[in-house]
């Protein structure tokens, strides 16, 4: 037996007991005649004491050879500490060691195993097994495990059945790129890894499972931007015989339960905002409503006063930054303007108005606007003396996006995005289709299985091109603190409507039949109305912990090149494997630098 | 709103209420002036009543158009049934329908949606969404969901953390064949889908996670024999600082809990049997101990009496089939002998001895053995009058395997394998290595990470070739009713020993480093002693329900060609996809028939 207790559980009550512990040497303090060693495991830290006086010579010598991260097993007696440590639960006691066994020695770790490590990202990922020994990362994984369990308990309590859907499915090029898997038994053919279990969960509704969920890995072969992973986890859910209202209520219930049961947070009822409102008021379909600075449109007040930039703009829109008029020098404004002009954001310029304490206004466009004009703006924006107005103009969609970035930046700068202030929000009434000017085709705003609103069904079946741009869907996103946590929709459950949607999305009849014939076929054998939602589980973990990166909640994440640097994957495979799969490499020589 | 209640919950107490239900039309009985319709959902069946007298003409006409599997929504009043049905929980009531809406019509299903269906396997799989509407299949999936939840609850209660390990990993050709995934971002390189999370769970132990589990999909690209799936599910577990004894106790606890909490079965303490004993007594490392007929070795009594077949055999061994002497005519014995001689089993012959009621013996080898000889056999085998002795001879391993088949066949024939009689068993002390005469190399009996028993470590490091054949491992299998439900081992946690094992298994140093360098590296930074187990989750589901096929517990299984016939996967992919992946097909023309 390696232990009678773990390193986190001994207390005053155990004083006098003989115990056996195993764990890692966190650190030792050698005072010459006495030595203290912190023994660590997942559960905590227990202090060991070796003394020249009480320990045998041999034991004391052996203790001195222990290095950081050695794995040891000790036996000893629990004694009361003379100087207690009230920072750790075991701080009242220590172990007077009578026997010590080194279970495994350890080389010096390439970085320190501590809450704040000196290891860079690359090093930490290469030695992930050492990085995972650090308490914050370990706590993240424990949190994740707990969150998954609470999710399952709650949904099971609501009569949801967890059904495992297959990972080896069929490639459907619509949407993101699939990872594919060559089939040895069916040469020339490929499986695809699921981007989501979407069609399977719909099939389960047709199959009468009524309420389905799954916490499941999904796969997308996309170019990895920051904080995206080729494999990620969803809480995937579907219900039959439901309205949008019932879905929102069910998953608002789940979300509240998860916040309460894992971090003790009471969430308020979730407000709902239409997609149009969100875009108009925040320039984003995932507004962070922890702080204000809502958009105010100024076309009516700012146009036709001779300022050609505004006059020629489709939209003039601004935010009011409270109390910052005096804090922003011309130099600061210039810096902010340059930040907005970076290609990532692409604003042409930034107009500012300072609402001075004396009731006057100072603006970068004083030339064109009177004090009265500026007062009009300030009034409309609800500004008070001391506030700073920041105004953009241009094409509506672009300008809103830019102002959204500016608003978030100001929120960050002013410390308005507090980590443990949770502001959930349902964004509803998304458009069904999005017209892509470049591709000259429609894309599904949510996905090709999303239903138009009931009142839009006839217009969708019979309407003209322009009508299609204005169809609304029963689609919804759950947004918390500016992160999209979940999204879903009521689905089409009628073959004719689904065919129409595929056609609008540019599928030929053959393509639709080839890729989704089974689903449309299923719709003919008694498909119930149904809908669902999927939560980004990695993102949910990070948002609940007020952290930005999902990577810290994934045990073995991949880097931006999609590589696992610990195991060094992907890698070349044996020629024999390729031969069995009846494929061959066709890798382009990359001439020179890349 | 589609429903106020589901189709399984209305009772006498609800009489008089107006309710709305939605579901599928199971069947209708039209009596001309009255019509009854069974409305079905996951929760049950509720009887609807339409009558010429009470319903409007329009409603009554509409009801008559309803076909099987139509999806409808009705509103009506709960009334007491005149003729009650005590076979269903809703049998006291029916619904007098006042409003009917057809939510979706249905084509006539290609097979009947009933407990016993007329659909063949192929048809059921193609229309899996209809097959899954059948109560027994639905119950299987509900059972599976429940079993997974109970597993998680129990293990979480034991401080296990569920950690998701990656699906896109590295190909390691040892063991079964990997499914591979070409990496677009790393041209010419491939990920592999995990055959199990083995190395990752060991890494998690090195990382100090202490107790890990995961219910996880695993993948093996093997030729699919009956009841094997290319993707299957494991309950995968690992613990640090544990002995084999602690692992067995922990997972015996889990198994008992699962049987109790899901099917109400109390399992006895699990007996333990060494691998050697299992092979000697049952000719199998997964003996079905629901019934006796243990092997008796007869070399000492049956050899050197002039019967050359026995004399030249390495092993003479038999079973005693109780009470079957008179039931087996010469013709029956001949049939049984032929069954044993089929190539799948390959016995050369089958010797029988009938223990007659009068105390005499009748045998197929009377010529060589006296009555006294045969009595000696019978005594050693514990036979009584009326018993039938069946005896095989030949090379030890082969003969044991053959007699195992015979024993199981007799158990089946005599009805001794009762579905709800659960007889668990730990088989322990497996050999570490298995010598393959054809390949002229060792294979790992469990897997390359399994530790030899402590007392065998030095022999493994220093011993000669013959010594390697006799090493025992801390490896164990959980067997229930002749099915291997789980298997595991204590792992190697020392670099030197792991290197030695790879060398014995025929790895070059480079291959070992290339494939498992990260693991051996991890062992140098303070790896704790650890071990674990994995349960075949699909198999556990079927065994607990006394069923033979795992397919019925998988929502969307693949057929023997690895195909999902519902979605028609795998399939060809677009040339554009191949180009992006920088691979090309190299499919052999198959000349003529295949």
Set out the fold topology:
The structure is a homodimer of 594-residue chains.
Chain A (H helix, E strand, L loop, with lengths): L17 E13 L3 E8 L2 E8 L5 H8 L6 E10 L12 E12 L16 H6 L1 H4 L3 H23 L3 E2 L17 E3 L7 E3 L5 H9 L4 E9 L11 E10 L3 H20 L8 E3 H8 L13 E2 L1 H4 L5 H4 L3 E7 L8 H12 L9 E5 L5 E3 L7 H10 L7 E7 L1 H18 L10 E5 L4 E4 L4 E4 L12 H6 L2 H5 L5 E6 L2 E8 L4 H10 L4 H14 L7 E7 H8 L30 H7 L1 E3 L9
Parallel strand pairs in A: 3-5, 6-9, 11-17
Antiparallel strand pairs in A: 1-2, 1-4, 2-3, 4-5, 7-8, 9-10, 10-22, 12-13, 13-16, 14-15, 14-16, 17-20, 18-19, 20-21, 21-22
Helix pairs in contact in A: 4-6, 15-16
CATH top level of the largest domain in chain A is Alpha Beta
CATH superfamily label of the largest domain in chain A: Bira Bifunctional Protein, Domain 2
Number-wise, the strands of chain A total: 23
Largest sheet of chain A: 8 strands, mixed
Subunit arrangement of the protein? homodimer
Report the uncertain regions of chain A: none
């Amino acid at each position: 037996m390696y232990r009678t207790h773990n390193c986190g559980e001994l207390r005053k009550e155990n004083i006098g007991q003989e115990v056996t512990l195993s764990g890692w040497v966190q650190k030792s303090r050698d005072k010459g005649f006495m030595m203290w060693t912190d023994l660590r495991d997942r559960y905590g830290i227990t202090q060991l004491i070796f003394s020249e006086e009480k320990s045998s010579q041999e034991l004391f010598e052996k203790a001195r050879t222990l290095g950081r991260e050695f794995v040891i097993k000790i036996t000893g007696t629990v004694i009361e500490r003379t100087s207690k440590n009230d920072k750790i639960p075991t701080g009242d006691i220590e172990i007077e060691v009578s026997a010590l066994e080194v279970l495994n020695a350890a080389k010096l770790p390439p970085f320190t195993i501590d809450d704040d490590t000196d290891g860079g990202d690359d090093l930490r990922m290469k030695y992930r097994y050492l990085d995972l020994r650090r308490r914050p990362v370990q706590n993240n994984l424990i949190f994740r495990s707990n969150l998954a369990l609470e999710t399952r308990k709650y949904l099971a309590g609501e009569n949801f059945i967890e059904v495992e859907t297959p990972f080896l499915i069929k490639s459907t090029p619509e949407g993101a790129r699939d990872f594919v898997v060559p089939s040895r038994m069916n040469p020339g053919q490929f499986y695809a890894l699921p981007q989501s279990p979407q069609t399977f969960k719909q099939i389960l509704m047709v199959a009468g499972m009524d309420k389905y969920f799954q916490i499941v890995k999904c796969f997308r072969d996309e170019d990895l931007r920051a904080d995206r992973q080729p494999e990620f986890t969803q809480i995937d859910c579907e219900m039959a015989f439901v309205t949008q209202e019932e879905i929102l209520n069910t998953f608002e219930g789940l979300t509240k339960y998860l916040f309460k049961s894992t971090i003790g947070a009471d969430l308020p009822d979730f407000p709902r905002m239409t997609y149009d409102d969100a875009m108009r008021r925040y320039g984003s379909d995932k507004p962070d409503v922890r702080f204000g600075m809502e958009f105010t449109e100024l076309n009516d007040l700012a146009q036709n006063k001779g300022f050609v930039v505004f006059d020629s703009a489709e939209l003039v829109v601004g935010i009011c930054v409270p109390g910052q008029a005096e804090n922003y020098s011309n130099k600061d404004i210039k810096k902010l303007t340059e930040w907005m002009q970076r290609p990532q954001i692409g604003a042409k310029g930034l107009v500012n108005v300072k609402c001075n304490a004396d009731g006057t206004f100072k603006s970068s466009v004083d030339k064109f606007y009177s004090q009265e004009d500026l007062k009009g703006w300030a009034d409309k924006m609800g500004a008070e003396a001391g506030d700073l107005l920041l105004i953009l103009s241009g094409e509506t969609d672009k300008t809103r996006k830019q102002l959204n970035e500016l608003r978030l930046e100001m929120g960050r700068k002013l410390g308005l995005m507090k980590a443990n202030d949770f502001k959930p929000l349902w964004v509803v009434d998304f458009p069904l289709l999005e017209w892509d000017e470049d591709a000259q085709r429609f894309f599904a705003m949510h996905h090709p299985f999303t239903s138009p609103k009931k009142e839009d069904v006839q217009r969708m079946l019979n309407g003209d091109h322009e009508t299609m741009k204005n169809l609304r869907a029963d689609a919804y996103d759950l947004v918390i603190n500016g992160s999209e946590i979940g999204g879903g929709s009521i689905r089409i459950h009628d073959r004719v409507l689904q065919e129409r949607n595929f056609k609008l999305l540019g599928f030929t009849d053959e393509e639709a039949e080839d890729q989704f014939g089974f689903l449309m076929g299923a719709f003919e054998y008694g498909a119930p109305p149904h809908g669902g939602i999927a939560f980004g589980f990695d993102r949910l973990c990070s948002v609940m912990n007020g952290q930005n990166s999902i990577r810290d909640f994934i045990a073995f994440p991949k880097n931006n090149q999609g590589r696992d640097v610990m195991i060094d994957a992907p890698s070349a495979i044996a020629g024999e494997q390729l031969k069995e799969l009846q494929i061959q490499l066709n890798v382009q020589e990359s001439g020179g630098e890349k």
